[in-house]
Each structure stands twice: as C-alpha cells, then as structure tokens.
Amino acid sequence: MSKSILVTGGTKGIGRAIIERFAKEGFDIYTCARNEKELVSLKAHLEENFPGIKVLALPADLSKKEEVAVFSAAVKAIGLPDVLVNNTGVFLPGALHNEPEGNFEFMMHTNLFSAYYLTRAFVNEMIERRSGHIFSMGSIAGLTAYPNGGTYAVTKWAMLGMTKCLREELKPHQIKVTSILPGATYTASWEGVDLPIDRFIRAEDVAESVWGAYNLSPQTVVEEIIIRPQLGDL
Length: 234
Known about the structure:
Layout: E1 4-8, H1 13-24, E2 28-33, H2 36-49, E3 55-59, H3 65-76, E4 83-86, H4 103-129, E5 133-137, H5 150-170, E6 176-182, E7 185-186, E8 201-202, H6 203-214, E9 224-227
Helix pairs in contact: 1-6, 3-4, 4-5
C-alpha cells in the first residue's frame, strides 16, 4: 500500500522541495497553496515526472480556519496521510511596537493557527492507527530574536513550543513529532538580495533532512533539526 504525505504551502521553496523528495520515493501527495495557477502547474509536473503517484493539489488560504476545515475534509475523503508537514508561513517585516495594524493577527493565523487546526484534523485518526509523523517548519527566528521581524519570531517561538507539547502528548501513541528549524534558505523570498547564493541553505537540503528524519526505525525519533548556512546566520 502506498504511503502519503501532506505538505502545506507546497508550490515553492521548502514545501516544494519536500514534495519532490517524497514523490521520488513513491509517496502520494496532498498539498495546498493560495495560488491556484501554481498548484495546477505543480500537479502537472508531479504527474509527468512521477506517474505512479496520486496528487491532490487544492487552493486554500490556511490563515482562515474554515478553509483549513475544507482542505482537511478533502484530504480525508481520500485517506489519512502518513506524514504531515505544517509548512505554510508568511513573513512581514516590522517591529512589534509599530508594525501595521493586522500584521500580528495575520501572521499568527497563517504561521501558527493553521498548523494547530490542521494537526487537530488528523491526529485522532493517527492515534487510532498508532502511526504517523508530524513535522513543523519553524525557523532560527524561533530560537533567536531578530530586529524588524518581531511578530514572525513570536509565531516561530510559539510553533516550537506547540511542537514540543505535541511530542510529549503523542509519543505514547507511536506518533513521531519533529521540529525543523532552518536558517536563511534560498527561496523566492530572497531573490534579488545582493548576497551570493552560497551564503544560503538549499531548500533541497532541508527536504533531505526531513526525509532522513522520517526514514528511521520505529523506535527512534529526531525531535529537532537546526539547519544553518555553513558560514553562519545572515
């Protein structure tokens, strides 16, 4: 029976790299993003290059609780994922004391609440099945405060805390929980920055780390992976 992985925010960057890595291993893919055109392109690419897998790619804005529910119901109609990667995220620069009104709420809903609601949508079935692996895509910003990134850092600190709690709650049920904490990774959000590409982590390296953490024996779990550029944080 084929395995499956659900990756939110799967059309670009780290999310797409994770999807490509697991598709290579024959995993069925469930994913979502806001941009429907990019989802159509991703689905066509996966079906062409990995013809043996099934692909569900649906538009969804996971900052909205009701869209999390609709997307999770669509996945459940097909099956329960073996791997859940809470990858959806957004970064809006600014300081906590004077950022534009609404930035805090939008980033909290996108970066944290989406993972909370989506995890709750699947975890009871994972408990009944007594298997599953949940990954949360955090950030070095969840370990170190940065100027001009206050709310983003708050969401990533909260994500790390939530993931630690899930780890404790779910370990008796044989469900693995892993935090991925990358530093600056070269994705579309960094394009145009006047820095050499070799100062950044490759999204494919983050994906390889996720695959490595997943591909261990049942009695072993990697709780946290911190990934930094070789020359240090930017």
